[in-house]
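For anyone still unconvinced, we reproduce a single protein record, the chain in one-letter code, the fold tokenised, and leave readers to judge:
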Amino acid sequence: MTSQPAVDSVLHLDSISVDFGQVRVLDDISLTVRRGEVVGVVGESGSGKTTLARTVLRAVAPAEGRVNVAGRDVTKLRGGALRAWRRSGAVQYVFQDPLRSLDPGVAVADSIVEGLRIAKVPPADAARRRAAALEAVGLDEDLIARLPSGLSGGQRQRAAIARALVVEPQLLVLDEPVSALDAASRDRVVQALIALRDQRGSDLAMLVISHDIGSLAAMSDRLVVLNRGRIVEDGPTRRVVAQPEHPYTRRLIDSVPLIHTPSANRP
């Protein structure tokens, strides 16, 4: 039986299953992300996290179920229709490695607005959007004249997030955004995402994929726990961290010495 997306949902996965050959990688996944909500998806390597992110982007076609993004069923889009939907900018993806989205031979400033140039956004408007995105992620505008190699790992990741933000998406999908960073850079990126969450409110939802439950606990409103392709727990972050219901969730939490949950002004 199919379910309808909530009125305020940006993403609604309805009983999604994904097969790679004879192997079922995602099994009957149902998940909703509402406007302004930050949902963290946590699980160990091989749990299906990245496949889930790629399914949202329609880089992977589900064997069963439906994918609804911003009120549109995108499950069966193919060819030109799929390309047009991706170019609409409703969903933007941030890679684990920012060098996959920042051209190593192009100044960071130009990489950030590349999508706007393709969309023929006037230069003055593109510059305004770039400045707003850089401010949102706490990145100094003086740095973006450099090539990506001239920035630290954390600065590159924040630039990649800014690149995603300039097209004004409704949903930001971040796949392991801090796993390749040192501790100091990781903290700066997490703080940038927390600030972005608080600034944008209902204008932006985020789906953050990670094996790092500590970082997710700091920034997310809800935690979804994925194990062997199935959701084993889904609930408010504070509740999941303080009172996990599934043994797998408890093992993940026990592996982290100290977890900070979101600030008290969030639901």
About this structure: Strands lie at 9-20, 23-34, 38-42, 64-69, 72-73, 91-94, 171-175, 205-210, 222-227, 230-236.
